[in-house]
Amino acid sequence: MTLESKVTLTRSLTLLSYFGLLALFLAWYLVLAPVPGANPWIIVLVQSSLLLAFLPTVIKGVPRGHAWLCFVLLLYFVQAVLAASNPATQGLGLAFCGLVGVLFSAAMYYARWKSRLIKALANNG
Predict the structure, then answer these.
(1) What's the Cα-to-Cα distance from 120 to each of 48, 110, 117, rounded to whole Å?
(2) Splitting the chain (125 residues) into consecutive groups of 10 residues, what average pLDDT does each group show?
């Protein structure tokens, strides 16, 4: 696999899992398991606020921002494991774990390979 194809693959996986995670939060708190007596939109906004802070970075494809996103995803992973260990939210928690894991891996490799590609293009050009 060439470096360009690795960058393309990890970029696609990053975008897919990033927006999938945001969609999971919407579905979880609005449809699948809304919290009784609470405003679900506030919960979704609080839950996804850290992810939404990285939206410009993810859309622009900034490698350094993807690396920082990986640090933030560690917090989400802890929350996902706790949700997966609760019998009431086990299925959603496992989906949450999976999406966070894919997003972490894809963003980490994207940051690494995109930085290498930028350096290679700078050295050749």
Answers:
(1) 35, 15, 5
(2) 93 97 92 84 90 95 96 96 94 95 97 94 83
